[in-house]
């Protein structure tokens, strides 16, 4: 069949109807409302779905008869090789839309945020990625990220702060799983990243050997770094209060004024802020009360707010301080951690003959034996008062 002549194409109208190209099977010029203009369409059967499909090749006369033929012949060649040209085009377009890891993380975070009851968790979720992940792989497209990229991101903290590394690994996995579900990447590289990283020590070993300052060294540490401080040095003030109360970092950083009862000299930490989700009462020593009094007026809600943003401080504030002053620990090559002061207190209790029950209640540890727990329901608040005052007196020596 002869190729569609140009003179015939220039006179195409709705009345004349569709004009087959003639030189390429399925290629035809479909008329538009204006005489001498139309749209090129290639009709074919997909070699993949075996369904009829229409591929638009542009408008006539902008796309000439010869140009339409060249494009159509190329598409026909792909069809003969088992390729659906429209599906291939869709995939190419999608490749151009692949988000970066940072973009994908923020999209997923926005989707997950309404399902989280704890706003703080939602903020921490994205904050950890911004701190540890975005600087290294944030600008990479999801389909560019390989297991080695994930391993290189996690390696600096994999053994140093394994709990944080584990949480970040889970969050990276969630982002990559989201990308896989949206067909932005062929697989999830986090699934095999463990083969590129050394084994982490077990949780029991990490807990037991978390760097802690020997209890006998703490009074000198406090005398050296806290004695001449001022109330506006929130980091030092907060750390001293943490040591005095043997509380967890998150409990102190998130402490609010409504939790403090000055009349009864007790700090009541609500269940929602406790690790075991049980209300915990902390008897306050004289020095702890002095610290709280010095903080009054700095913030209407938080006791130890961030000086600049007036928000809850990050755990890294305490970590950075301890690293900066090279706080001595019982672990060679590492400085003491904020959480380690709880271990120091526990060791002091044991080595100075204080009751195990009082020590465990002071740390808000739960009774593991279910039978014992069923009968032992008191938190021994009044019995713990002299213990915490004795601890405070020791620290002030």
Automatic annotation (TrEMBL):
Chain coiled-coil ranges: none
PANTHER family attached to this UniProt entry: PROPHAGE INTEGRASE, PROPHAGE INTEGRASE INTS-RELATED
Domain Tyr recombinase: 208-388
Keyword Iron-sulfur applies: no
Highest taxon listed in the record's lineage: Bacteria
Key words, A-Z: DNA integration, DNA recombination, DNA-binding
Gene3D superfamilies: 1.10.150.130, Integrase, DNA-binding domain (3.30.160.390), Intergrase catalytic core (1.10.443.10)
Similarity remark: Belongs to the 'phage' integrase family.
Protein name per UniProt: Tyrosine-type recombinase/integrase
Keyword DNA-binding found: yes
């Amino acid at each position: 069949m002869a190729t569609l002549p140009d003179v015939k194409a220039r006179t195409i109208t709705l009345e004349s109807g569709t004009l087959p190209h003639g030189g390429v099977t399925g290629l035809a010029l479909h008329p538009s409302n204006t005489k001498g203009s139309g749209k090129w369409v290639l009709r074919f059967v997909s070699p993949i779905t075996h369904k009829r499909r229409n591929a638009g090749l542009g408008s006539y006369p902008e796309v000439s008869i010869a140009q339409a033929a060249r494009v159509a012949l190329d598409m026909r060649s792909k069809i003969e090789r088992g390729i659906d040209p429209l599906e291939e085009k869709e995939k190419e377009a999608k490749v151009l839309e692949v988000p970066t890891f940072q973009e994908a993380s923020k999209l997923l975070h926005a989707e997950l945020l309404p399902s989280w009851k704890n706003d703080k968790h939602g903020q921490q979720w994205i904050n950890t990625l911004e701190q540890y992940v975005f600087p290294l792989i944030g600008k990479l497209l999801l389909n560019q990220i390989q297991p080695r990229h994930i391993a290189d991101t996690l390696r600096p903290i994999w053994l140093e702060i394994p709990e944080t590394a584990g949480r970040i690994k889970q969050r990276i996995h969630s982002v990559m799983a989201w990308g896989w579900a949206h067909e932005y990447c062929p697989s999830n590289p986090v699934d095999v990243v463990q083969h590129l990283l050394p084994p982490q020590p077990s949780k029991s070993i990490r807990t037991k050997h978390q760097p802690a300052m020997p209890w006998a060294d703490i009074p000198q540490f406090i005398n050296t770094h806290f004695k001449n401080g001022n109330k506006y040095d929130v980091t030092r003030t907060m750390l001293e209060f943490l040591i005095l109360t043997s509380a967890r970092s998150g409990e102190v950083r998130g402490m609010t004024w409504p939790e403090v009862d000055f009349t009864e000299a007790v700090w009541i930490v609500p269940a929602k802020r406790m690790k075991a989700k049980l209300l915990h009462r902390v008897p306050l020593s004289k020095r702890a009360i002095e610290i709280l009094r010095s903080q009054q007026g700095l913030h209407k809600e938080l006791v130890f707010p961030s000086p600049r943003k007036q928000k809850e401080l990050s755990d890294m504030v305490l970590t950075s301080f301890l690293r900066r002053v090279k706080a001595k620990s019982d672990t060679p090559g590492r400085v003491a951690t904020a959480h380690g002061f709880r271990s120091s207190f526990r060791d002091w209790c044991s080595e100075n003959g204080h009751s195990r029950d009082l020590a465990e209640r002071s740390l808000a540890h739960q009774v593991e034996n279910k039978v014992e727990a069923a009968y032992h329901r008191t938190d021994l608040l009044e019995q713990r008062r002299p213990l915490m005052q004795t601890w405070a007196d020791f620290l002030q020596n």
